[in-house]
Design goal:
By secondary structure, the protein is α+β, with helices and mostly antiparallel strands. It is built from 4 helices and 8 strands, in the order βββαββααββαβ. The chain has 2 domains: 115 residues, no CATH class; 59 residues. Helix content is 34%, strand content 17%. The radius of gyration is 22 Å and the shape is elongated. The two termini are 26 Å apart.
């Protein structure tokens, strides 16, 4: 174990994994959440004025939206994050799908177009394939550039930063926080008594919704 705060164990964090903190409202129930799926009622997150990435004192904040559906927050969710960290502190700007898809499409398209280009006999077909080849190469180059930017974000972790924190709510009354920042996890437990449901890591199976 990595430590204990307010009677809650903080587990050891395996390499390339994140802490998973689940907060729930006192009256949370899975059934109630299903019937109020559009209400936007989730635990209010309280944090000290420390950047969620570098843990330095800051007066800067950012409003986050934990919903992927049509729910609207009843109250804005604002978290402390310094100006330096705003570009790499959250997952919403660096999902792996943003670069994996164009790389795959670009690579497959480039190989297919090169094959067709050298096997096509008519000039009209060759001109068409040249245009498609250029589009495929553009996709590939764009994906590689996004991958470079994404990998660059994680270099901050080597200098006392904890990039790629995620705030997510899949059902009313519940809030997931995924992070590599142990200090953030400690502060969540410390400043939000009564709403901590479970603290684990992404190496563990995700708890069944109940």
């Amino acid at each position: 174990m990595s430590g204990q705060i307010n009677g809650i164990e903080i587990p050891f964090l395996p390499e390339k994994k994140k802490y998973r903190v689940i907060l729930r409202l006192p009256d949370y129930s899975f059934t109630k959440g299903l019937f109020t799926v559009f209400s936007g009622s989730i635990p209010k997150l309280v944090l000290p004025t420390l950047c969620i990435c570098c843990n330095k004192e800051t007066t800067d904040t950012k409003q986050v939206m934990p919903f992927d559906d049509d729910r609207k927050l009843k109250e804005p969710m604002v978290v402390p994050v310094c100006e330096t960290c705003k570009k790499h502190a959250f997952t919403d700007a660096g999902s792996t799908s943003l670069y994996l898809l164009p790389i795959m499409l670009g690579l497959v398209g480039t190989i297919a177009m090169l094959y067709q280009l050298f096997s096509a006999k008519e000039i009209y077909n060759k001109n068409t394939f040249v245009v498609l080849l250029a589009i495929s190469i553009a996709f590939l180059a764009g994906g590689i550039y996004l991958a470079y930017r994404y990998s660059k974000r994680f270099k901050f972790a080597e200098h006392g930063h904890s990039p790629e924190t995620e705030f997510d709510s899949r059902i009313d009354g519940e809030l997931f926080i995924l992070t590599i920042n142990k200090t953030l996890v400690e502060n969540i437990i410390k400043y939000n008594p009564g709403t901590i449901f479970k603290v684990s890591t992404t190496a563990d199976p995700e708890p069944f919704l109940k």
